[in-house]
Each structure stands twice: as structure tokens, then as C-alpha cells.
Amino acid sequence: MKQKQLTLQKFIDQVQAGSNNSLNERVSTMASLIIALSGLILYSDKALAFFDIAIIMPDKFAEKGVSTEIFVWLVAQTLSPLLIIIGSILRPYFYAYTIPIYCYVLQFYFVLIDYSLVDDGYSYAYSLGITALLVLIMYFARTASQRSTKMMIEQSKEKIRKSKVEHAAD
Amino acid sequence: MRQTKFTKIRLLLQGANELFDEGKITSDEFAELVSGVENDYNKIVREMDIVDTSEILLNYINQSK
Which value does ipTM take for this structure? Predict the structure, then answer.
């Protein structure tokens, strides 16, 4: 009996101390932020223009008449897949992918359907979409944890019921 | 913070399930653990409801000022 209590106490202590599991949660949160950034980075040309931040562009682009906005967009396009790969390796929460998916779908629309060369008019669509996605993510994050805990309790209770039925049958 | 509380509950349940599966605790002991964990769960959910209601009330008061 004492051995059982010790085993359980050891486990409770590990949980209270926030052992590897909390580390995993922290890593997953960081990975989710990286995944979210991979989508948001596509919006960096607009953010730089909005805050009036000047950047240094290599001469070869300036000589070819590439605008700063397009250069920043190209850099963001290059970085974004790398961020997705890094974030994916670190096992992010699944819902984090909604941000890059939304940004890329909007970009897909711009590239194939819209006839303008620079997506200047998309600022509101980006802002509204990202806000709506963040609200949804916050809602799901809040309820998902509660629901999965409740489900686990019900599964454990079901296991107890089955065990009692088996014992009664014996 | 709330997620952390739920995570701790899930980890405790997971540990209790493992101990029960390995035969280290009896079904009565397991039932006692699950019952305790369920009480904690209900307490957290009740606290969440209170916080939510308070937020709604505060918003209503602020709007009607």
C-alpha cells in the first residue's frame, strides 16, 4: 500500500513540478508562433510601409527597377517555407497552421485571379481575416483543453465500470 | 493558466490509468482517484463560469455608463 502511495506521489510531484510535459507544451507553443509567423511574414511589406521603415535593398534589384515592396515580399516568400519547416519539426499545435493557410489562400487569389501587380488593396482583408482567425484560435484553444479533459474523465469512468462488471462476472 | 490546470488533471488521469493498467492500484483506488480528479475539474469549470459571468457584467456596466 505504501509502495502504491509512493509511486502515485512521485507521479503527482512530477506533474506539479512541470516536468518534460510542460517543456513539450512550451516547445509546441513556440513552434505554433513560428508557424503563425510564416504566414504573417507575407504581410511584412505592408507592415514596413505602414510604419514607414526604410530597408536597404541590394543594388541588383534597384538596377532592375524592383520596388522595395516587391523585394521585401520576395524575401518573405523565401523565409516563409523555412519557418514552416522549422515550426513543423518542433510539433506545433494543429490550429496554428490556419494562419499561413489563410495568408497563402489570399495570396493565391491575388496571384491568379486579381489583375493588379501589387496587392495594395488587401490590407483590410489581411487584418480582418487574421483577427477572425485569432479569435477562433483563442476560442478553440480555450474549449479544446476542457473538452479533452472531460473526455478523459469519462473514459476512465467507463474503464472502472467495465472492471467492476468483469469482477462481478468472476 | 486554465490550460495548465487542465493539463495537470489530464496528466494525473494518465498516471492513474497507467497504474491501474499495470495492476499497481485496485479499481476502488482508481475510482477514488478519478472521482477526486473530476471534482477538481468541476471546480475549475465553475471558476471559469464565474470569471466569464463577471466579464459580461463588467462589460454591461461599462457600456451603460
Answer: 0.75
